[in-house]
Amino acid sequence: MKIICVGRNYKAHAQELQNEIPTEPVLFIKPDTAILKGNDFYIPEFSSEIHYEAELVVKISKGGKYITKANAHKHYEQIALGIDFTARDLQSQLKAKGLPWEKAKGFDGSAVVSSFFPISDFNRDEIKFQMLKNKQLVQSGNTKEMIFDIDQLISYISEYFTLRVGDLIFTGTPAGVGAIVENDILEGMLENQAVFNIKIQ
Ligand code: ZN
């Protein structure tokens, strides 16, 4: 199983990090060991600036290569809400040197994934999600604000990476990313349902 992540898929988030609005999806991969086990996230020693990024997660239910946009909806049946934890300090250093981001994005525990829900329960063009930090709303996203929608992403990703059953796609984060400290609580909401509650240690 692999985790394919999309960067800069919401205009306002690209702008808050002073990145250009992309003309094609920005992709990176987390290893399967990045999945957080349990509900406690431990800040790693190599970073003093871990950011949360709430993202809609799509699980691939049918593998494929060169999937067309028109057929993409046949390749997923379930979604979840996730967090793409990012060592922003390390990522900034690596970006400045033109080096790959993997250490800043793919470390152990850096991928939170809630339970999965059938996509048929949602209007896929307009799925709302939110993240609360210590009960305060910090991120609010809607799939209608994506620069590249889910079907476009699946089609684009499958040109480069064969998709297999169980692969996860993190579809990008809306504006409002920020740093965490010990004892913070991150709660994820998918539409009006609380789907995760992560304690920062
Ligand atoms: Zn992200």
Account of the 3D structure:
With 201 residues, the protein is an alpha+beta fold. It has a single domain, classed as Fumarylacetoacetase-like, C-terminal domain (Fumarylacetoacetate hydrolase, domain 2), CATH 3.90.850.10. The chain is 15% helix and 35% strand. The protein contains four helices and 15 strands. Strands 1, 2, 5, 6, 8, 9 and 12 form a seven-stranded mixed sheet that branches. A hairpin with a 2-residue loop joins strand 14 and strand 15. The chain is globular. The structure holds zinc ion.
Oligomer: single chain
List the domain count as a whole number. Answer: 1
Which CATH architecture is right? Answer: Alpha-Beta Complex
Strand content: 25-35%
The percent of residues in helical segments reads 10-25%
Helix vs. strand class: alpha+beta
CATH top level? Alpha Beta
- CATH third-tier fold name: Fumarylacetoacetate hydrolase, domain 2
Number of helices: 4
- Which spans of ≥5 residues are poorly predicted at pLDDT below 50? none
Question: How many β-strand runs?
Answer: 15
What characteristic shape results from the CA principal axes?
globular
Give the full name of the CATH homologous superfamily.
Fumarylacetoacetase-like, C-terminal domain
Note the main sheet. 7 strands, mixed
Order of helices and strands: EHEEEEEEHHEEEEHEEEE
From the alpha-carbon coordinates, what is the Rg to the nearest angstrom? Answer: 16 Å
CA(first)-CA(last) distance: 27 Å
Average pLDDT, to the nearest integer?
96
Q: Give the bound compounds.
A: zinc ion
